[in-house]
Amino acid sequence: MKIKQLSLTVAAAAAFLPVWGLTTTASANTTNTINSTSSMPDTQYVRKSATGWTYNLGGTASNMTFGKKTHYLKNYPNTTWHATQKRYITKKNGVKYLYYYVTNGKKTASGWIWHGYLQKKSYSHTTSTTSTKGTGTYASVLKAAQAQLGKPYVYGGNGPSSFDCSGFTKYVFKQAIGQTLPRTAQAQYNAYDHVSASNAKPGDLIFFGTSTSNITHCGIYLGNHKMIDAQLRGVVTEATNVSWWHTVGYARPATLS
Length: 257
What we know:
By secondary structure, the chain is α+β, with helices and mostly antiparallel strands. The protein contains 5 helices and 15 strands. The chain is about 20% helix and about 40% strand.
């Protein structure tokens, strides 16, 4: 009789146990599922930090798989990514995530990436070349630039401890000759008179990207196909006539003697 009463007591107690644990187990995903995929207007993004990969996504809508990692954002510090598709995915943990399908400007890198690794690209609306030129010596610009060699690259870095590409050029010209450059690479290109490659002088700014309206990187030209710039490896002196840099043009923010 006592055994029977004990069984009834346990059964009754079980009826009052919270059911959230049972519900979670019953509804837990055993696969990654695609909730929706749709086209979106071509929207330009840059990386938010050096973290994150693009992926090849495979499988089916009800059993989606994360395939090969294709491109590590750490290796693309100045790339503009074009997002043209968006996909909502519910992972095995039951959480819904938004992914973008992105392609770089040269269409040599693409894949799906979690949207949190990216931020929308900002633009300067400066389109004229009316900024006032500075004056000074190339020696002072070179000295200020070389003093930053070895300092790390940080997106949005303005110095003096870390830099991004345009933060570096802006800092150097301010320190060397008191010249205030615009903040972004695109704005710096837009703001000053352009010079041809054959007429470029040490101390000019050199710009890279996919076009004159899509400047993604800049540095201080040293002559003889060399520059000093802030890139993934930090502030370095490097060659400009290499395959991974696509030179768009040069600008002269100051008259240097």
